[in-house]
Amino acid sequence: MPDFHLVPTGPRPVGPFCHATEAAGWVMLTGQMPTDPAAPDAPLPDGIAAQATRVMDNLGLVLAGLGLSWADVVQCRCYLTDLPRDFDAFNAVYAGYFPADRRPARTTIGVTALAVGALVEVDCTARRPGVPG
Fold it and tell me: How confident is the model at residue 1, as a pLDDT?
């Protein structure tokens, strides 16, 4: 059976879902928004760099709450509402979360809109160390 995780230190979900689902050592993290866990109803940060940082920090909170780290991430999906404008600035932030020789597989998708008016959302898949299979 899968485990459904809601991390107490994680950001408040913006919809009816958990922070992550885990099965056989694979952990699928829900896409995170640039909301502030300490003030979930506060306005979003201005600009792609600030929003990307908040999204990645929120994913980091969920990873840490599950006893995982960025080193355990094997794949990310990134969603940008203005891909041509924001791709380079997003990459500059994103690259800071992974060593150059340990970057996970990634897909970046341009979308027309995201929840809460966000400019960016990122989800990821991690593999729990030491789990056979």
Answer: 84
Please state the rounded mean pLDDT for residues 36-49: 96
Q: Which CATH class is domain 3-11+18-127?
A: alpha beta
Vertex 76, ends 105 and 29: CA angle to 5°? 140
Question: What is 116-129 written as a DSSP string?
Answer: GG-SEEEEEEEE-T
Quick check: 133 pLDDT over 80? no
Beta-ladder partners of 126 = 27, 73
Residue that is written with structure tokens 């230190």 in the block: 9
Beta bridge partners of 26: 23, 127
* Whole-number Å distance between alpha carbons of 76 and 27: 12
Domain range summary for the chain, segments of one domain joined by +: 3-11+18-127
Residue 127 pLDDT exceeds 90: yes
Instruction: Look at the block and give the residue holding tokens 């500059």.
Output: 92
- Token pair for residue 50? 């600030």
Cα gap 126→74, rounded to integer Å: 5
Residue holding tokens 């355990």?
72
Q: Which of 54, 55, 47 is nearest to 29 (CA)?
A: 55
Structure tokens at 107: 């897909």
